Amino acid sequence: MFRRGFKAWCEETALNVRQHQGLPATAPLSPHLLASELRVAVVQPSDLKDLSADVCRRLLGKHSDCWSAMTIPGKRPLIVYNPAHSAARQNSDLMHELAHVLLGHKPTRVFIDPHTGLALRTHDKEQEEEASWLAGSLMLPREVLLHIKANSISDEAACRQYGVSAKMLTYRMNVSGVNIQQKRAQVWRR
Question: pLDDT by residue (tens digit) across 69-82?
């Protein structure tokens, strides 16, 4: 699925980003601060002056379930996110788009969305999987997950502290191997 060493690189990148921002390894990472550091503008549709009021209304109303966030490449990339989603979802969407930027991904397809009339760009499956993995690692690297377990932080508290959904927390606990590691440690202690 991923090239050799990619997952380890993602974990290392998540820790390096925190270190570069002067944060402890177990601190939450704000996608807005990361975007600012990467010189990526982050806006919602209503901030786009050239977007018609009708299209904006449809994006945030009738079609709000059809999109999450998109990156408009340029000298200074621009991420447009959907403010109709939950804060945790917005964080995840923004981090996913920032992961594409960090990975240097180029869109593979441009098309006109039939619902909104907007020109949209997509990435191929491999790029989407890489961006998803890096985004998850940036929000919840193993170091953070081990910290949550070691300090018996409840799932609810961890989700609030790190700005993620319960689904994202569970996913990262499982795919990172932290849940298995904790279960094995419990068996050894008995």
Answer: 988 888 899 999 99
